[in-house]
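User: Structure with nicotinamide-adenine-dinucleotide, C-alpha cells only please.
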Amino acid sequence: MRGLLVGRMQPVHQGHLQVVKSILEQVEEVIICIGSAQLSHTIKDPFTGGERVMMLTKALSENGIPASRYYIIPIPDIACNSIWVSHVKMLTPPFNKIYTGNPLVQRLFMEEGYQVTIPPLFYRDTYSGTEVRRRMIEGENWESLVPSSVKDAIYEIEGVERLQHLLKIEVSEK
Ligand code: NAD
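Assistant:
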C-alpha cells in the first residue's frame, strides 16, 4: 500500500514530520508532494521547491526514516483545479490512499474516487508554516518548531534574512 501527502511546506515543520511518521505506520511507502513547487521569494512562499526538498530529505534522514520508504516529488500548481489530480498522478508513482487536512485537496481527490484520510493535527496553532514565518519575521524563537536539520538548512540558505528582506520589499512597494 502506498499513501500520498501534499503540502506547501513553507517551511517543513514538526507537524509535517509527525504526519509522515503516522502515515508510515499505516502504509509501506509514502509519496510526499511538495506543492506550489514553482513558488518562492514571497512572504507566504519564501523557499524554492528545491530548498523544500532539501529540508524534507534532511528531516527524514535525521529521524531515521529509510529512503526506501518515501518519494519526495515537487508538484507545480496548475490553473485548472478540475484536472489537478491527473497532473499529480502524472508526476508520482501509483498510490492508493490520500492523506490531507486541506479541504480543497480532499474534495478534488474524493471526486476522482480516491480514499481520503484526514490525519490528526499536532499542535496546529504552533506547528504551522504561518507561525514559523511569523516568528522568523518578528525575531522570535522559530527554531523549536522545526526539526534540527531543517533549522540548519534554513541557516545555510540564510532563510530568515531572505524573509525579512522580502517583507521590506513588500512594504516599500505599497
Ligand atoms: P501545508 O504545508 O499547509 O499542509 C500539508 C499537510 O500537512 C496538511 O494537509 C496536513 O495534513 C499536514 N499538516 C500541516 N500541519 C500539521 C500539523 N501541525 N500536524 C499534523 N499535520 C499537519 O500545505 P497545503 O496548503 O495543504 O498544500 C496543498 C498544496 O496543494 C498547495 O501547494 C496547493 O497549491 C496545492 N494544490 C494545487 C492545486 C492546483 O494547482 N490547481 C489544487 C489544489 C491544491
